[in-house]
Amino acid sequence: MTALANVLAFWRRDEYSIELESGMDEVSLALVADAWSRTYRSSAKTTASTPGAGETRDKIRIIPDRTNASRPGVRRVSIFPGLPPAEALDHTLDAIAARYGERTTNMVAMQLEYRRH
């Protein structure tokens, strides 16, 4: 029911921006972007100041979705650099709970087959 309600609330879609940085942890990036996108209320896009690919900590090249990070109405989210990926996901789920509520957060965690702290 939560997924259906979130899909039907099409007028309340949020877009989030994750700034690509050289040396960032690609697992944290994937988990954070995926979690926000699984809410059915938002999407997460990568952004950078230049259109070229950037390299992650493990030398994976990522091409940004957008090159203009300062678009109006787009909120920036963190991948919580310096934290292990599971902790970054915990913090992201906390942020999702604050924004959309526990039901949406529990739905996201269930889709990821992840047990929250």
What does this structure look like?
With 117 residues, this protein is an alpha/beta fold. The chain has a single domain, classed as Rossmann fold. It is built from four helices and five strands; from the N terminus they run αβαββββαα. The protein has a three-stranded parallel β-sheet, with helices on one face. The chain has a two-stranded antiparallel sheet with strand order 3-4. A hairpin with a 5-residue loop joins strand 3 and strand 4. Helix 2 runs parallel beside helix 3 and helix 3 packs antiparallel against helix 4. The radius of gyration is 14 Å and the shape is globular.
**What's the number of domains?**
1
Mean pLDDT: 87
The succession of helices and strands, N to C, reads: HEHEEEEHH
How is the main sheet built?
3 strands, parallel
Helix content bin: 25-40%
CATH architecture: 3-Layer(aba) Sandwich
Apparent shape: globular
Concise structural overview:
Strands 2-1-5 form a three-stranded parallel beta sheet, with helices on one face. Strands 3-4 form a two-stranded antiparallel sheet. α2 packs parallel to α3.
Keywords:
single chain; 117 residues; alpha/beta; Rossmann fold; three-stranded parallel sheet; two-stranded antiparallel ribbon; 4 helices; 38% helix; 15% strand; globular
